[in-house]
Amino acid sequence: MTDTDLVIVGGGVMGLFTAYHASGLGRGVTVLERGRVGDPATASYGRTRSYRNDYLDPTYVRLAGEAIRLWDAFEAREDVRVLVRCGCLNIANAGVTPDLDATYARMSHRVLENLGMPTEALGAEEIRSRFPGLDADVGQLDAGAGVVDLAAVQEALTRVLAERGVRVLEGAPPSAIARGEHGFTVIAGDVRLTARSLVVTAGHGTNDVLARLSGCTLRVPIEKDRPSDARYFEPAPGERHRFTAGAMPVVAYLDAGIYCHPIVPGVVDAVKVGYYNPPDVPRGTTSIDSIDSFVERCFPALRGMTTSPVQDVDQCDYDLVADDDFVLGAIPGAANAFVGVGWRGTGYKFAPWVGRVLAELAVQAGTVYDIDRFDPARFQKGVARDAPVATDPATAAH
Ligand SMILES: Cc1cc2nc3c(=O)[nH]c(=O)nc-3n(C[C@H](O)[C@H](O)[C@H](O)COP(=O)(O)OP(=O)(O)OC[C@H]3O[C@@H](n4cnc5c(N)ncnc54)[C@H](O)[C@@H]3O)c2cc1C
């Protein structure tokens, strides 16, 4: 006799979307969260996250496209607006990265073109006329991109999960997870649950949870990292309209580790600029080594604005995984147990897809998607895999 069909450990966006899809399939679901859902100290809660298609690896392009289709479906089904469809402009400036053909903007444009995805190549003149205030020689516009409104996502998920009777227990990290003939017995404080299936979406807490699962020897090599700097830029009131979503897309110069999110009225009242140099991308290859030098060289319209550090949100870490690929699938040796982690700094946009995959695995014994590449078993002791091969700065962040 089981209390519930599925226990999910970890109430971030991946856990909640797993609960969303599993409950949508009519299953009983309980989510165990160590702290509280919506804590801005966790990766899933803040103001905005970018969503984009423009990866260098075609698999991630296809997955991002599928995830955006699932975001659209979520909006339509739950009658909410969570995507701010402002587009994403990847830029390059010849003074910063002289080999323009080898820049992220040009390379990702070629990948999207090869896959028949919509992408628009802009030259210097067109950039200056459409986005005055930016100084770039190359622009690749991914019109099907933008930012996600995180508060709107959390509000919608919380409402729908409550309507469907999903139990979300906060302050409830499991102390033991035993495996039996018919599933799992999970102890969390004075709560004792039995479930047919288990999903672990505990971010940086994943290995701690795996260690409590009886007989589980899987440990995922995840490390923490975070942007070196992130700042809000506040335009003068008369200038504000030039920097709101609609007038301004997400601007990314990934060769230089830079991303900018526009003002989204009611969500964030300043332009957010972040600087992050992933550990596997060589440093010092461009003259940009800070937000200030980026503004100076590429975004003169931001010069002279009042700035403040981003401190209200985003004080959390990316979950970098040793070989630069997602970790998604069955926990080796534990029937009906699954894990999802290692999203690096790029996971949020994939959340509806990740949730769907984990829900299908947990309650339908398989998924329609090909996820072999992400198999957690590659990190099981004794299973060899080649050393890290990280080449795509965008899989590292945003
Ligand atoms: C600063 C920053 C900027 C980012 N920007 C972008 C972006 O622009 N675009 C994008 O697509 N992605 C972005 N990301 C990545 C994205 O936010 C994450 O990939 C995503 O939120 C991860 O969700 P999660 O549910 O796996 O993890 P989390 O949000 O960390 O959730 C895991 C949950 O598990 C809980 N937990 C941990 N241990 C236990 C335990 N023992 N028992 C019970 N619960 C436990 C934690 O409390 C937490 O609530 C960014 C990440 C960061 C940090």
Q: What can you tell me about this protein's structure?
A:
By secondary structure, the protein is α+β, with helices and mostly antiparallel strands. It has helices at 13-24, 58-78, 104-114, 124-130, 150-163, 206-212, 291-298, 351-364, 393-396; strands at 4-9, 29-32, 48-51, 83-84, 88-92, 120-123, 138-142, 146-149, 167-169, 176-180, 183-188, 191-200, 222-225, 229-234, 250-253, 258-261, 271-275, 306-309, 318-321, 327-330, 337-341. It has two domains: 4-45 and 151-223 and 318-396, FAD/NAD(P)-binding domain, CATH 3.50.50.60; 88-143 and 227-309, D-Amino Acid Oxidase, subunit A, domain 2 (D-Amino Acid Oxidase, Chain A, domain 2), CATH 3.30.9.10. Strands 1, 2, 9, 10, 11, 12, 20 and 21 form an eight-stranded mixed beta sheet that branches. The protein has an eight-stranded mixed beta sheet with strand order 6-7-5-15-16-17-14-18. A three-stranded antiparallel beta sheet has the order 3-8-4. Helix 1 (13-24) packs parallel to helix 5 and helix 1 crosses helix 8.
Terminal-residue CA separation: 43 Å
Helix content: 10-25%
Question: Structural class per helix/strand content?
Answer: alpha+beta
Mean pLDDT level: 92
Give the CA-based shape. Answer: elongated
Order of helices and strands: EHEEHEEHEHEEHEEEEHEEEEEHEEEEHH
**Poorly predicted ranges:** 386-391
> Oligomeric form of this entry?
single chain
Radius of gyration: 21 Å
Whole-number tally of structural domains:
2
Question: CATH superfamily assignment of the largest domain?
Answer: FAD/NAD(P)-binding domain
Percent in strands: 15-25%
Bound ligands, named by name, code or SMILES: flavin-adenine dinucleotide
CATH class of the largest domain: Alpha Beta
